[in-house]
Amino acid sequence: MKPDVYAANCPTRQILDRVGDKWAVLILLLLREEPMRFNQLRRTIEGISQKMLSQVLKSLERDGLIKRHAIATVPVTVEYSITQLGGTLAAAVDPLRDWAEQNLKDVLAAQRRYDTQQKDEAA
């Protein structure tokens, strides 16, 4: 049976959840450049909490998009790298990042127009 993303129980939606998660996308794009340690990721991705980073890394690892490598040091050093599968997803979402950067001004202008219109209609 062919997946139907519009069906409530379609597993494809789980993958789309990953694509729609800004933290997951940012992590994948960073790891595409080079493997990184947990704290290196946390310092680079401004605004992500330690708890959220941990949760997203576990989800990405579970999905086979990244791999976790523990290095026997004291304390243990953990490094994350992107898998081949994760690399294909990062390549697919990178144009979305480009689009967001290129159209940011237009989107912000549209939001201001909308907000102004809503205020005027409420008055």
From TrEMBL:
UniProt GO BP: regulation of DNA-templated transcription
Cited Pfam families: HxlR
Domain of life: Bacteria
Family matches, as PROSITE patterns: HTH_HXLR
Keyword Cell inner membrane in record: no
Keywords: DNA-binding, Transcription, Transcription regulation
MF (Gene Ontology): DNA binding
All residue ranges annotated as the HTH hxlR-type domain in the record: 10-108
Stated name of the protein: Transcriptional regulator
UniProt source species: Bradyrhizobium japonicum
